[in-house]
Amino acid sequence: MVASLPKIRTVRALRARVKAWRDDSETIALVPTMGALHQGHLSLVDIANKKADRTIVTIFVNPAQFAPNEDFSSYPRDEKRDNAALSERGTDLVFSPNHAEIYPPDFSTSVSVGGLSEGLCGASRPHFFGGVATVVTKLLLQALPDIAVFGEKDYQQQLIIRRLVRDLNIPVKIVTGPIIREADGLAMSSRNAYLSAKDRAAAPRLYQTLRDISAKLASGKTTGQVLPRAKRQLKAAGFEIDYLEVMDPDNLIPIKGRITGKARLFAAATLGATRLIDNLAVPQRRRAR
Ligand code: PAF
């Protein structure tokens, strides 16, 4: 049997625990999640465990980052399973706040990160990054960890969090863990559980397409030669594309034409009712001598 993890639901109790660790000169890592944990989340816990003496995992399905027509009420929740997975991985504490602890009555403050939040997922989910930025700011200020770990699958999100931490002088180091994939390449996500058997079989096509585009761009083809065709192929495979773009990974400015410097591919597409996102670096071309 797996030991039950200490679970805390109030900021007051969280701060008392953090203070006790600080008094013992221990360093603290925070891994914010919405639960429904998979190997991708657990890889972030592994990073946190390596980098700090104590690891806190937060589990809070944040209503502010869901639009009214999105899946807040059906978002997968399984406290027992999450607890067992975290116990096995060696987490020190789970912070699982009640709704009112995060959003007390008359809560009226929001954090918005201009520029970076506007493109990609921000264009089709305009509420999303404001909700993420607000809750992450709160979680960071509540726990005041030394480091906080986020996944590269949500590349735009981790960039926005880095920016808000810098802009608001929050004293925490943001660490990003690599995308963890299923054996067939599909990026792990709690929402993969929504895929029908047919859509699950088609889903790895998104990553295969990114790899294919990335190889072509790295070999000197232009975005115009590669992206429209890749979009047509994805559509034919049943994907409804939200975006498929090449951007500068530091500032999310779109790149068109031949790739001459750092570049990253970003994709979001719906299969059935499930929205998938993925991203991949484009290797830089070696200069001919
Ligand atoms: O990536 C997520 O699971 C969420 O957006 C986060 C960072 C936990 C904020 O709710």
How would the blueprint of this fold be written?
Elements: E1 7-8, H1 11-23, E2 28-33, H2 39-51, E3 54-59, H3 79-89, E4 93-95, H4 99-102, H5 121-124, H6 128-143, E5 147-151, H7 155-167, E6 173-177, H8 197-202, H9 205-218, H10 223-236, E7 240-247, E8 263-271, E9 274-282
Parallel strand pairs: 1-4, 2-3, 2-5, 3-4, 5-6
Antiparallel strand pairs: 7-8, 8-9
Helix pairs in contact: 6-7, 9-10
Question: Would you kindly provide a written description of the structure presented here, covering whatever features stand out?
Answer:
With 289 residues, this protein is of the alpha/beta class. The protein has 2 domains: 7-177, Rossmann fold, CATH 3.40.50.620; 190-280, 2-Layer Sandwich (Pantoate--beta-alanine Ligase, Chain: A,domain 2), CATH 3.30.1300.10. It has helices at 11-23, 39-51, 79-89, 99-102, 121-124, 128-143, 155-167, 197-202, 205-218, 223-236, and strands at 7-8, 28-33, 54-59, 93-95, 147-151, 173-177, 240-247, 263-271, 274-282. The strands form 2 sheets. The chain has a 6-stranded parallel beta sheet with strand order 1-4-3-2-5-6, sandwiched between helices. A 3-stranded antiparallel beta sheet has the order 7-8-9, covered by helices on one side. The radius of gyration is 20 Å and the shape is globular. Pantoate binds next to strand 2 and helix 6.
